[in-house]
Design a protein that fits this description.
Layout: E1 12-15, E2 21-26, H1 32-41, H2 44-61, E3 68-75, E4 78-87, E5 96-103, H3 112-126, E6 131-137, H4 142-150, E7 154-164, E8 170-179, H5 180-186
Parallel strand pairs: 5-6
Antiparallel strand pairs: 1-2, 2-3, 3-4, 4-5, 6-8, 7-8
């Protein structure tokens, strides 16, 4: 099943904890400048850590059949959140998806990151994926790690020094996984 089938459920509004609403929709061709502005709104240490993951998701989402879904959360015309789901390449790993979520600081602690995470889990379930993998920088993305654990992700391991900040300092990366059977069971309530 290809990811473009999911696009029919978008755009969709998400109401945040403070009652503000943002619009979530798939990234579209030509949105490079919007994604670049989003990246510039992130703190410098996070920008470097997110940049490769977000740009790769954006590029893969523009290539038909690549097995990627990249979502934007928009407040008006500005991207305030980005979420990505990419099916792993090759038949041996095609049942596993990698996800990423990033939110600009002004929209954190309002439920946007958790809502984007749920969007990705729903998309993965619809695609029949069996597992999701999420990587987060331990000291910079502690809130994201807690949100992922709340959604059912389990910590698999810590990759010591798995990321470097702009000054070259190492940061540990937490690698987490969610068996989709657990997600499906949890969402039946």
């Amino acid at each position: 099943m290809e990811m473009p089938l999911l696009n029919s459920s978008y755009p969709r509004p998400i109401v945040l904890r403070d009652s503000r609403s943002v619009l979530v929709r798939p990234m579209q061709p030509g949105e490079g400048p919007r994604v670049q502005r989003f990246l510039q709104a992130l703190p410098e240490e996070e920008r470097l850590l997110q940049e490769g993951r977000l740009l790769l998701s954006w590029e893969r989402s523009e290539t038909p059949g690549e097995g990627a879904l990249a979502l934007l959360a928009l407040d008006g015309e500005e991207a305030v959140g980005v979420a990505s789901l990419a099916r792993r390449p090759g038949r041996a790993r095609a049942h596993v998806g990698d996800i990423g979520v990033a939110v600009v600081p002004a929209y954190r602690h309002r439920g946007l990151g958790s809502a984007l995470l749920r969007e990705l889990c729903e998309a993965a379930s619809a695609l029949g994926l069996e597992k999701l993998i999420y990587e987060a920088v331990a000291d910079l993305e502690a809130d994201a790690i807690r949100a992922a654990e709340w959604a059912g992700f389990m910590r698999l391991c810590i990759l010591e020094g798995g990321a470097r900040d702009p000054q070259g300092r190492p940061h540990d990366v937490v690698i987490m996984a969610l068996p989709m059977s657990r997600w499906r069971q949890w969402t039946r309530f």
